[in-house]
Write the C-alpha cells for this entry.
Amino acid sequence: MGDFPNEVASEVAGTVGAARSAVHVAALGFASRAAGRPVLPPDAFSDWLSWLTSRRYFIPGRPRAFEHDCLAMLGVALALRAVDAGEDVLKWLDGLATQSMDSFQRGSWEWSLISAAKLVLGLPRTDDIEPQVVPELRVALTVKGVLNGYVGAGNPAWETIIGLDELSGDAPRAAVMLAAFEQLISERMSVRLSDIEVEDVSRILRRVPSSLRRWPWEEKAKTTRSLPARWDVENEYHVQDLLWVILAPLFPDLEDEEYLESLGQKHPRVDLAIPSLGLIIEVKFLRPTVSFADMIGEVSEDTGLYFCKGSPWRQMIAFVWDDSARTEEHHEFCQGLLKLPHVVDAVVVPRPAKMDRNRVKSGSS
C-alpha cells in the first residue's frame, strides 16, 4: 500500500475552488478504507462533505458527472462511513444512488457499483439488491471487508474470471477481478494442515452457510422407515456442536468449554479454542429479542476476560448464529466487532430460510 493514503490526503487537501470534484471525495473514501481511518482531520473532511452535499444534481440539460460516476459513488459511500456521517447524509447519498441506478441495466457492472455503494451505507433495506450485484464484485468487496459474505457468488465469479479473454482499459474492474481471483484460488487449494494459520480457520468458518444447504430439515421422511428429520439449532451449545463437527477433524488440539485462569472470583471459560494458533472462537446465539449493540457489548466483555495480562491467547474469531436472520444489519455489526481488541474476524451466519419453525407440523420429530 505504501504511502498511498497520505498521498491522497495531501493532494485533496490542496485542492480548492473550481478544481474540486466528487472524485476527490471518493479518493478520500478509498484511501480511508485502505488506511483503516479517516485520512483527513474531521474539520477538513466535513468541509469536503458539505461542499459535495450542497451541490445540485440531475439538472436538466447539464451533463451527468458524479450522478453517473459509479466508482466515485462507491468511494463517497466509503468516505461517509469512514467519518460516521449522520443518517441524513447517508440517506442523501442513498437517494442519489437510487436515482442513478435507473440509468443502468440491473445486474450490470455500473449498476452493481452503485448497489455496492448503497450496501456500504448500511441503511435498513426493503429491496434485495445484493444477490444481483455481479459475483466477482461481491467476492472482492467481501475480501476487503466492505460486505459480510458472498454466499452463492463464488462459483459464478470463478466462471466469469476463467472465461475472460481480455479486459482492457478498465483498471478498476481488473483490480476487482484480481482480488476475487486470489480469494477464490485460495479457497480451492487444499487445507495446509502442516502450515495452517488463523486465516484458514476464518476461511472454513465463512463456508458454514454453504454446508447448511444439506442440513436436514425435511417436510417428509426420506425413507419409509424413518421420520422427517429436522436438526434444529436452538441455542449456543448447538452452534458449538456444529463447529466442533467441522473443526475437530482438522485441528487435533481443538478444545471446548476450556476454563481459563481465574480472575479473582471470576472463572472465564472459552467456547472453542485452538492452542497451537493461540486462537479463541467465541460462539454467540443471537435471538430476535437481543440487539446487535448488546451482542457487541457481550463480546467486548469477553475479550477483557480472555486477553488479560499473562493470557496465552492472542486472537479471537467471533462466530454468531443470527436466529432472526437480520442480514441487513450484519455488515455494521461485523464492523463493530472488528474494532474490538484481538478480534481478527467476525462471521455471522443467518438462520437458513428453509429452517422455518412455523412450518414444523405437529407430530413430527
In short: The beta strands are 255-259, 269-274, 279-286, 315-322, 343-350. The two ends are 55 Å apart (CA to CA). The CA atoms of residues 13 and 170 lie 27 Å apart.
